[in-house]
Automatic annotation (TrEMBL):
InterPro entries in UniProt: NAD(P)-bd_dom_sf, ODC_Mu_crystall, ODC_N
EC numbers for this chain: 4.3.1.12
GO CC annotation terms, alphabetical: cytoplasm
Species assigned in the record: Rhizobium pisi
Protein name: Ornithine cyclodeaminase
Keywords: Lyase, NAD
Length: 334
């Protein structure tokens, strides 16, 4: 048998690669475009819950991107109390494979990938679905993915006002401080949901609720706003979708009936949001198959649960850049 070598990139390697905002957005955009053209395979995520969902769980995401010639499987732990032992709530590993032979090609610390691709999907959703003149961002949540939401959104919109809130004061204060240092602008820290979200042009909800709770009030959403809720447990009032002109998801296969968790889980399971009422998947909009925002008056909601194909795309971009920069290790497999 011929020799098989695997590219290995650990967390330090991923940090050293220092993918730029545009490199991240470009990689994820290509994955979304391929999805819209039907040139991907996205298997709905599955979950492993070791003891109880209160403690945390593992997400297993599987996908294939034809243009990249990679299939991938990512396993990411989501454990809400990890901060108590000085660990991020999400830690992940991505495995890339040759889709023609099954040969393993790369093992990558995907903790940063998870954060970056989530932020990129949020930002690209806004690129196509938010008003072009959006100037106020309201963001709930301060976990890892939140940083890239704000950073990449601001990269595209250059906000006049950024408001943030999370449950723990030390968490939201540290989050705002990091953003101010990296973005070079003032970030407003709020101690409640209403002051953070009400009247914002773009409203992002990435909370860490232990159980569903209607903390995001429909009355706070102004006409023409763009709303992105993606907390594991829903924070929405049930009538929120009633005021939306368009509802967009990342992949209906993993958002549809019978799946666990997610911001619109009750809306889907009780038939308020269906395949028929859905406007589009984001990939269909990115590739030009369906329109995005068509007027400033449209109020639009975008629900994304995490696309395995965007993990694969960012992993491939990291492997390519690592080879150019001579970063990482080569591990003998066979």
């Amino acid at each position: 048998m011929q020799e098989i070598w695997i590219d290995y990139l650990n967390a330090l390697d991923a940090k050293a690669l220092a993918l730029t905002n545009d490199e991240i957005l470009d990689a994820v955009s290509k994955a979304l475009d391929a999805q819209g053209r039907g040139e991907t395979v996205i298997e709905p995520r599955v979950h492993l819950v070791p003891e109880s969902s209160d403690k945390g769980h593992f997400n297993v995401l599987r996908g294939y991107v034809k243009a990249l010639n990679y299939a991938g499987v990512k396993v990411v732990g989501d454990f809400v109390d990890n901060y108590k032992v000085d660990l991020p709530s999400e830690l992940a590993v991505l495995n890339l494979f040759d889709p023609n032979t099954g040969v393993p090609k790369a093992i990558i610390d995907a903790t940063a990938i998870t954060d970056m691709r989530t932020g990129a999907v949020t930002a690209l959703g806004a690129k196509y679905l938010a008003r072009k003149d959006s100037k106020v961002l309201g963001h709930i949540g301060a976990r890892g993915t939140s940083y890239w939401n704000v950073r990449l959104l601001d990269h595209l919109f250059d906000f006049e006002e950024i408001r943030v809130h999370s449950r723990r004061p030390e968490s939201r204060d540290a989050f705002a401080k990091r953003l101010e240092a990296d973005l070079g602008k003032k970030v407003v820290v709020t101690d409640n949901w209403e002051d953070c979200l009400k009247g914002a042009d773009i409203m992002v909800e990435a909370s860490r609720l232990p159980e569903p709770a209607p903390l995001f009030k429909t009355e706070w959403v102004k006409k023409g706003a763009f709303v992105v809720p993606y907390g594991t447990m829903s924070a929405l009032e049930f009538d929120l979708t009633d005021i939306m002109d368009k509802v967009v998801v990342d992949d209906w296969g993993q958002c549809g009936p019978g799946k666990p968790f997610g911001a619109l889980r009750r809306h889907v399971d009780e038939g308020k949001v269906t395949a028929e009422t859905l406007h589009a998947e984001i990939g269909q909009i990115v590739c030009g198959m369906k329109p995005g925002r068509e007027s400033d008056e449209e109020t639009i909601l975008f629900w994304h649960r995490g696309l395995s194909t965007t993990d694969v795309a960012l992993g491939a971009a990291m492997v390519d850049k690592a080879k150019e920069m001579n970063i990482g290790q080569r591990l003998r497999f066979a």
